[in-house]
Design goal:
It is a single chain. The protein is mostly beta strands and 203 residues long. The protein contains 3 helices and 13 strands, in the order βαββαββββββββββα. The strands form 3 sheets. A 6-stranded mixed beta barrel has the order 1-3-2-6-5-4. The longest helix has 10 residues. It is elongated, with a radius of gyration of 26 Å.
């Protein structure tokens, strides 16, 4: 995977009014922090950040360019307005190669187009919580459901990542992620019950 970058600048804008002016100038306030550095107030270009977040989200790894230095980090949290449209702020956690990262990874269920006809699939979870090193970080975990039959389920304990020494899974292993059900069958009318009874002859 190629490196993703975000350019950042130091800021000293504190207080609601200053933050409003910052945002109105096309910048987004943020905090960059980590175990090896003090929390640092930064600002990022809104257009650049919107473009990044269009394809990435919380948990995504990114390299922050700050004062000529390249800092490995990941998106810890983002805050949007009440309508969920405008980005208000972002928190970025700086990392070293030896830092373990605890994060949520989105599940991507693949192979649904190969499921039996008439099946009803249920996605019961959208993410799991894992821990790994920065060089092993993933944004999405593919879950192959192509070979499921009616009544089958996939639990966290069934995922290959459970046996991968590079990852530690914190989500409960018995959590059901996906299940495949029969479609609701239409009951055929009971022939005996619907058979017309002979009309008694008139006296």
């Amino acid at each position: 995977m190629s490196k993703l970058f975000l350019n950042a600048s130091l800021r000293d804008a504190l207080g609601t009014n200053r933050l409003k002016k910052l945002r109105s100038s096309g910048l987004v306030p943020g905090i960059l922090y980590g175990s090896h550095m003090e929390p640092t107030a930064i600002s990022l270009n809104k257009l650049e950040l919107d473009k990044f977040l269009a394809e990435n989200n919380v948990g995504s790894k990114v390299y922050v360019i700050l004062e000529g230095k390249e800092i490995m980090a990941f998106v810890k949290t983002i805050q949007k307005d009440v309508f969920g449209l405008s980005l208000l702020s972002i928190d970025l956690q700086a990392l070293t190669k030896t830092d373990k990262v605890k994060m949520f990874v989105k599940l991507n269920f693949i192979g649904k187009d190969k499921l039996p006809l008439g099946a009803i699939s249920q996605e019961l979870a959208s993410e799991i919580e894992i821990e790994t090193f920065p060089d092993q970080m993933i944004d999405t975990l593919n879950v192959d459901v192509a070979n499921l039959q009616f009544g089958d389920t996939i639990k966290i304990s069934d995922l290959p990542i459970m046996n991968d020494k590079n990852f530690r899974v914190f989500s409960a292993p018995d959590t059901t992620l996906f299940t495949l059900l029969h479609s609701k069958s239409v009951e055929e009318p009971n022939a005996a019950a619907t058979e017309e009874k002979p009309v008694p002859a008139a006296e």
